[in-house]
Amino acid sequence: MKLMDKTRTSLKKYFDSRAFRERYHCDEPLGAFREEGRTAFHLWAPTASEVTLRLFQRGDGGEELERLPLSPGARGLWSAEVPRDLDGVYYDYLVTVDGETRRTADPCARACGLDGDRSMVVDLRRTDPEGWEGDQAPPLPPETVIYELHVKDFSWDPASGVRPEWRGKFKALTQTGTTLNGDGVHPTGLDYIKSLGVTHVQLMPVFDYGSVAEGGDPNEYNWGYDPVNYNVPEGSYATDPRDGAVRVRELKEAVQALHRAGLRVIMDVVYNHTYHLDSWLWRTVPWYYVRQRGDGSPSDGSGCGCDLASERSMCGKYILDSVLYWAEEYHMDGFRFDLMGLLDVPLMNRVRRALDKRYGPGEKVLLGEPWSAAATAARPGTRLAHKGNLRRLDAGVAAFCDATRDAVKGSLFHAEDAGFVNGGGLDASLLACCVKGWSGDGFVSDAPSRTVNYLSCHDDWTLWDKLAAVSPGRSDAGLLRQNRLAAAIDFFCQGSLFFLAGEEFARTKNGVKNTYRSSPELNRLDWDRAWDNGALVDWYRGLIALRKRLPGLRDKSPAAGARLLAAEQFTGNCSGVLLDNAGDSPWRQLCLIFNAGEDTVDAELPEGVWDVLADGDSAWHWQAPYQLRSSAMLGPVSALILGRR
Ligand code: CA
Fold first, then answer.
1. Active-site residue, selected from the candidate residues 307, 369, 555, 568
2. Are 437 and 451 in contact (CB under 8 A)?
3. Closest CA to 281 of 321, 251, 241, 254
4. pLDDT tens, residue by residue, 295-329
5. Cα–Cα dist 453/146, whole Å
6. Rounded CA gap, 201 and 267, in Å?
7. Conformation bin of residue 223: beta by default, left when phi > 0, alpha when psi is -120 to 50
8. The pLDDT value given to residue 1
9. How far, rounded to the nearest angstrom, does the alpha carbon of residue 345 sit from its chain's CA centroid?
10. Integer Rg of the chain from CA
């Protein structure tokens, strides 16, 4: 096909057309595939007039070894075969479209060299760590409690006790037995995370991203929401970013170590945009993978100027294949979709079905942000996976719940905006909505299987910094009480649970809101602080352990909402709910009361004897409860969790 006479806007129509899809949709495997004695290269480039493969000894610099043409075949597929096993050989392509030739790495590469600049042919079996064949995720837990972690944040702090050469790397996730400054007493790192009772560690982007120079200054830092190679791990987290096999092996080692620690692993995936418009996808098939506005300019719903056109069949296929690849090759147990509101509903449902079919229903977690940064220019008629379309998504696709997040601690758009725990009032009917995970009649969701409750994630302020911003001058002790109450409310809402690593020890970024390219010093997990705030950590630990034992809150079914039996307003700052807790639990009913006020509240209880499962002092009373009847005294800014047998 010649594009010479096609303007950008007619190209958009052409790529959106059924005719294009019917003629060029290609289900052949794409990428470089080697075996003994041969290596095959397959690239989908339907608009190209010429494609040349170049082979290199190295991933950066060095001599070109060889150059050979790819042959065009049916459905836009270009192929070449080399009669040798090219394991460890680097390559790229020269793709000519419309008379213009662009150099590109392979968008389907599974290994790459420094900075992802060239692709690498790889024998994936030689990247498997010892025992990988037997690697298995721990059994599916009764509740999903997700801990969001950045690889570099995890071990940057020398106090972590992690080996210096592994700090900031995938390898740090494999080191057990670390303690605070090596004191042998206070566990840090992997052992510490294991002790929290969380079920899933969600790794912030670990695919190859572009904003940190690999092998450069270790102080360079980025969250990594800027994809370069979607199917290759990031090189700055590897001990050797120049050898393409090392990053692959070391990420697998990290997953294996997390599995051994009893933790499942969720991968943060960013399929809504690429680092630059000028991506490998773009260079291979200009404009096909990118949404365009009516005037032909690139759509910008992501804030990055290059929204991917997930609704186009080969783009959707690229995303689905990528997810399946990470699940299969790296044993990932779930995926968190960045700006899921930019991807289309049918794609998300295909991903859900494909994972369920391969691994069993619900085995892999899917969650996403049900919004976008701005409007996007999807093909007309495309249903996007945003909040308004939650009910059109498979019930096994969950979405972050901003309503509870903002209700509990105040809006993240204004520093001074207060929520339940910091002076905003604690309205019983609003509390009831939160407890039900905003699910049921009249809500955007029909079941809490779609709800992810959280108070903090990598974006915006940490919970601690937000609490401090709302109440300047409040003592640390006062802020800690608010933090405890906030966590108690959040952890006793229906839906899955999620929190930013360090929220449990009052993590601070000194009030800086979005630290995506701040220093690793500011972003690091401060392991001294983790132990200084050990009482708060213990509160989280107790709440998590208790939550796992409460079927009334774990229930993700559409019937879960009916478990909310009553909501009661005690004072303007104190309210509670009564919940049906039928299931595998000694307690038939639960009574949750939260007092956000500065005064002690004498709350009247429903009749009967109530076991105190958690109170203002401890989240561990459920192990040996004491009893209350008729009324309960709640201290200032405190929670009371009660169970009736
Ligand atoms: Ca990179």
1. 369
2. yes
3. 321
4. 889 999 999 999 999 999 999 999 999 999 999 99
5. 10
6. 9
7. alpha
8. 46
9. 18
10. 26
Hey, what are 32's tokens? Answer: 């470089």
Tell me which residue has tokens 């599974």. 110
Q: How many angstroms is it from 376 CA to the middle of ligand 1?
A: 27
Distance 231 CA to ligand 1 centre (A): 12
CB atoms within 10 A of CB 594: 29
Rounded to the nearest whole angstrom, what is the distance from the C-alpha of residue 515 to the centroid of ligand 1? 19
DSSP 263-332: -EEEEEE--SB-SSSS-HHHHHSTTTTB-B-TTSPBP-SSSSS-BB-TTSHHHHHHHHHHHHHHHHHH--
Note if 148 is an active site residue: no
For position 81, what pLDDT does the model report? 98
Q: What's domain 562-644's superfamily in CATH?
A: Golgi alpha-mannosidase II (2.60.40.1180)
- Interhelix angle 428-435/402-409, rounded to 10 degrees, is 140
State the distance from the centre of ligand 1 to the C-alpha of 224, rounded, in angstroms. 9
Q: Are 530 and 505 in contact (CB under 8 A)?
A: yes
- Ligand 1 centre and the CA of 43: distance in Å? 22
- In 3-state terms, what secondary structure has residue 544? helix
The answer to whether 645 touches 629, Cβ cutoff 8 Å, is no
Catalytic residue among 153, 253, 338, 526: 338
Three-state DSSP class for 202? strand
| 3-127 CATH choice from 2.40.50.100, 3.30.470.20, 3.20.20.20, 2.60.40.10 | 2.60.40.10
Identical fold at 3-127 and 562-644?
yes
Residue 338 annotated as catalytic: yes
Ranges of the chain with pLDDT below 50: 1-5
Q: How many CB atoms lie within 10 A of CB 148?
A: 24
Separation of 118 CA from ligand 1 center, angstroms?
Answer: 11
Instruction: Give the global pTM.
Output: 0.97
| Separation of CA 259 from chain center | 17
- Residue 597, pLDDT score: 98
Domain range list for the chain: 3-127, 562-644
Long-range CB contacts (< 8 A, 24+ apart) of 96-102?
96/48, 96/49, 96/50, 96/51, 97/3, 97/45, 97/47, 97/48, 97/49, 97/285, 97/286, 98/2, 98/3, 98/4, 98/47, 98/49, 98/286, 99/4, 99/49, 101/50, 102/283, 102/286
